[in-house]
């Protein structure tokens, strides 16, 4: 290893901590110290496999076939799928944290009932300490806001309905 040994170890530990904080699975970076002196680091982690949803409970009525009872989780999943397929849904283009206003205490970019134009900022998604303004893909009226300020959002998740 180079003469930067202690600083390199601290840097690698910071990268590992960044993985934990952001729930990323991999980071790869290179540091250039000089013409023939560099450090290349790739830090990865295994993400736990998602647990399968509980099996639906079935009840047998007297002299009748078993009937599957819907669960609240299944109903919530169906509702989320319906919102994602809505023609006016604005889906998240990235994983990150949603902010509905530019800074705490300032007014929200939009609220339910607001008329928006194509390209108007709807909200901000923070990803990797970068604030990304999310523009409206179309003109219309904000019918529903499906995310809360400061909440995490996944890629492709519906965030708003604009009709």
UniProtKB/TrEMBL annotation:
GO terms for cellular component: acetyl-CoA carboxylase complex. SUPFAM superfamilies: Single hybrid motif. InterPro entries: AcCoA_biotinCC, Biotin_BS, Biotin_Carboxyl_Carrier/Decarb, Biotin_lipoyl, Single_hybrid_motif. Pathway: Lipid metabolism; fatty acid biosynthesis. One of its GO terms (molecular function) is acetyl-CoA carboxylase activity. It holds the Pfam family Biotin_lipoyl. It comes from the Bacteria. Residues 87-163 form the Lipoyl-binding domain. Transmembrane segments: none annotated. Keywords: Biotin, Fatty acid biosynthesis, Fatty acid metabolism, Lipid biosynthesis, Lipid metabolism. One of its GO terms (biological process) is fatty acid biosynthetic process. This protein is a component of the acetyl coenzyme A carboxylase complex; first, biotin carboxylase catalyzes the carboxylation of the carrier protein and then the transcarboxylase transfers the carboxyl group to form malonyl-CoA. This is Biotin carboxyl carrier protein of acetyl-CoA carboxylase. It comes from Albimonas donghaensis.
